Each structure stands twice: as structure tokens, then as C-alpha cells.
Amino acid sequence: MAVVRDRRHLNLRLPLPEPSERRHRFPLPLPPSANSAAAAPTNSAAAISAADLEKLQVLGHGNGGTVYKVRHKHTSAIYALKVVHGDSDPAFRRQILREISILRRTDSPHVIKCHGVFDIPGGDFAICMQYMDMGTLETLLKNGVVFTEDLLAKICHQVLSGLEYLHAHKIIHRDLKPSNLLVDQKMEVKISDFGVSKIMQRTLDPCNSYVGTCAYMSPERFDPDTYGSNYNGYAGDIWSLGLTLLELYVGHFPYLAPGQRPDWATLMCAICFGEPPSLPESTSDNFRSFIECCLQKDSSKRWSATQLLSHPFVCNIEPKSV
């Protein structure tokens, strides 16, 4: 049972933009066959159109779009609808198109489902996605939920299963953090937000690895020569998972003191050159070992998602049937 207590939180969303020379000029076309719900009913038994949906409330705003809670007029099913405005920033629009491309490839109970992509009159377009009624793990943390080791083990097993699926399909997330892990009342967790993700071909272009939220970046993404001579991208997701679990456990970003204001240079120095985050003495050996397997500064020593699923901290968790 989760416990609630007061906690202070910092804004660690310090995104690093992709290199300017890679920006596309507006407008951008939708991916092939993504122009209507009928053509792109990803993971959905039936097509959904904009006319089928009624808006219930705003869930959030972004630089170039809005996410709504919506209801299907005929089935009463609830969805999340991400509407991208036609005049949105080209970089944001590019991220959304990347997310669509990834979502159309995935079919896992541990990855958020896309039920359709379609145009909206006026130049906007929208992604209809699975609705998670408890928001994100960041939301729970801000609301004072205390994440016990047992709860974290159940969360971790689901996220690892999602990462194992993604990595097996050559997809790296590159921005795993509490705000990109959606949760419902059953504590089912889904990986979301693939705006800076990458579908691997052979190797990862080093300049392409410098995207995401810098607070959760692994050392080799700041300094590949020192920490990632064999960097392949997948190990970066494991680092982000370890840091996410640690943040949920201690109640604040673990590489900074509670209340410390972060900036890019401080975070880079802490991650690359600082001592590993300390854990309370009451931490179990299994959880301590699991975190160490995730937060190895040398990326070649970090465990893979498949290896971590066999770790004693999570190996006895019963998979959720969803």
C-alpha cells in the first residue's frame, strides 16, 4: 500500500535540443498512411475518427499541442487525444511525427497503445491513445506517494518488460523518466512519449544521442569517449531506469541535494564525475544490487533489460495479464 507524505520537488526537465542543422522546415508531411484513422488504426480493432470523439477535459499543454481526455460517442470508451496544432514549432512537430512512427511499430502491454492518427479540420492532426487514469509516476511522486521496494519491484518489472520488447525491436527510448511512465489505478505502467526515440540501424550516430532530458542522461551520452566506447544506445535506457527508480525511492532527484536548483553543468558534473547516489541504510541488498547494475558509469558493464529481468529484485514478480 502506498503511503503519502510531504515532499519537495524540483523541475528537472532541462531538455537538450537536437542539433539545429537537423531541423526540418515547416510544414512537415505526416508519415505515409497516417492521414486518416481508417489508414492507421494502430493496435485497434476499429477505426476512430475525430467526429467519434467528444472532449471531456484538458490533461496538459505543450509547446505545440494539447492533450485531452476524450470519450467515444458510440462506445463510451475513454482515450487520450494529443492534438498537434498546425502552426506548432517545427521541432515539436518533428517529435510528434517520430512518436507516430514508433507507436505504429509497437504492440506490447507495457507500451502505450495508439488507436489512430487522423487530420482535424483547420490544419491540426491528432493521435488517439490509450488513457491512463492516474497520470504519470511523476504525478504520484508530486502527490506524496511513497514508493516502497515492493511497489518499485512491480513497477520495474513492467518497465523492464517494455524495454526488453523495445530493444528487441531495435527501438531505444532515450528519454525514460517518471513523467514518461504512465500509470492507472491497477498500477499498470506503460512507457510513453517517443518523441526523441530512435530506431536503430547499425550504430547510433553520436550527435543523435545528445537529445532528451539531461537530468536522466547516462555518462556516455555526455562523454562517449570516456564512458561509452561501445555505446549502442540501449544501455542509456537502463541508466535512466535506474535513476528513475532511485528518484521514486528517495523522493527527490538523487544526484542533487533536496532543494538544489539544477542546471546543465551541475547535472553533467554530478552524473559524469560525482559519486554514485547514496541509498538509505535500510535499503535491501537486492534493491541496492539492482541499482548498481543499472548505474554503472561504464556502459559496457551495465546489465541489459533481459538480464535485469532475472535479477532477484524483480524475478519473482508475477507478470500482469493485460
Automatic annotation (TrEMBL):
CDD domains, per database record: PKc_MAPKK_plant_like
UniProt GO BP: pollen-pistil interaction; response to other organism; response to stress
Catalytic reactions of this protein: L-tyrosyl-[protein] + ATP = O-phospho-L-tyrosyl-[protein] + ADP + H(+); L-seryl-[protein] + ATP = O-phospho-L-seryl-[protein] + ADP + H(+); L-threonyl-[protein] + ATP = O-phospho-L-threonyl-[protein] + ADP + H(+)
Region named Disordered: 15-41
GO cellular component: cytoplasm
Classification via SMART domains: S_TKc
InterPro entries with a match to the protein in the record: Kinase-like_dom_sf, Prot_kinase_dom, Protein_kinase_ATP_BS, Ser/Thr_kinase_AS
Entry's EC annotation: 2.7.12.2
Similarity section: Belongs to the protein kinase superfamily. STE Ser/Thr protein kinase family. MAP kinase kinase subfamily.
PANTHER family: DUAL SPECIFICITY MITOGEN-ACTIVATED PROTEIN KINASE KINASE 5, DUAL SPECIFICITY MITOGEN-ACTIVATED PROTEIN KINASE KINASE 5-RELATED
Protein name (database record): mitogen-activated protein kinase kinase
Organism: Erythranthe guttata
